[in-house]
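G., the chain you wanted modeled:
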Amino acid sequence: MKAYNRCLVGVKEQVYKHEIATIKRYGDKYKLTLNKIVREKGWEQVKAPPPDDDTDSEDEIKLDNRKLRNNISRARGKIYELAMCNDFQYFITCTLDKEKYKRDDLAKFHKDLSQFIRDQRKKYKADDLKYILIPELHKDGKNWHMHGLLGGIRKEMLSPFISGVHPQRLINKGYLNWMDYANKFGFISVGMVRDKGKAAGYIKKYITEDLDKSVQDYGAHLYYRSQGLKVAELIEKGSLCQVPSFWDYENDYVKIKWITEDEISAFIS
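Predicted structure as tokens:
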């Protein structure tokens, strides 16, 4: 294995670039990212030969853990990006009523929910209806519900909760009911998003290590999204010419700083 790694040194230098800075626009905000290492396009993945036996080595376990952290980090980053770049007016929690629907079949839930939303677009002529949804297991480790963000829903699709029937705490906070969903699937709460940044930061926290392991067991995804959502726009890419006085976030792979539009030219050459 050591001899194999030595012969890849020259290849790795060509495949990867180090300390690459980018600036992307997320709606009306700008994110400066310093990638400590970036894989260049056009190079095929070089795989190491298989181990001599099937025993998991300590290095392999560390690699699996690192892949898990990377998977979660990428999903959280993408959810934050989509939440910031699109106009989502509501935060939603979608549950399933065991009297109306099979609660432990995530694949069917996602498929039927996607069709339900397509039908709602037609019924209410709500062409802009869009969503990000994150599945979550109940504490029983078997049944599913979802949290997410919703945009483009028409007011006539929503109705007030009823005192004495629905939780009073939700009524007091101004949450609304989506009756068509409730009739088909079960309880749902729809709450107004008052701060896009806080909502984006909150929703991504539902992506956890437990979720990653759970959805892999079901062959599912960490999150679901409607088609056609806007993504971050690349503004600049190059070398960092000025180091920020502090970074808003840092891990083994990236450093992140939120900046203003006026600061763009100060950081990348």
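Confidence is low (pLDDT under 50) at residues 1-9, 46-55.

Shout if anything looks off.
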